Amino acid sequence: MTIIVAVKFSNGVVVATDSRSIYGEAQYVRDTERKIDTLNDKVAVTSSGIRAASNRIFKELRSYVEANENLTFDEIVSECEDLMRNFYKRYSGRLKEELEDGWSFELFSSERMVIIESDGVADEEESYLCDGSGTPYAEYILRQRYKPDLTEQECKELACYVVLQTSLIDPNVGGPVNLCVLKEIGLKHLTRPEIDEIVENIKETPIEQQIKIQSLVEEIVEERRWINDLFKNKFKTALFKQDEYAISQIQKTCKNENDFTNRISALAVLIDRTESLDVDDRLGEKNKASINRLQVFADKNMPKLNPECIKNLREIYTLRSHKMPIHEDDPRLMQILLQWEYKIPPNWGNLWEKALTKYRDSLKMLKAAVQ
Question: What is the CATH number of the domain that holds 46?
Answer without folding.
Answer: 3.60.20.10
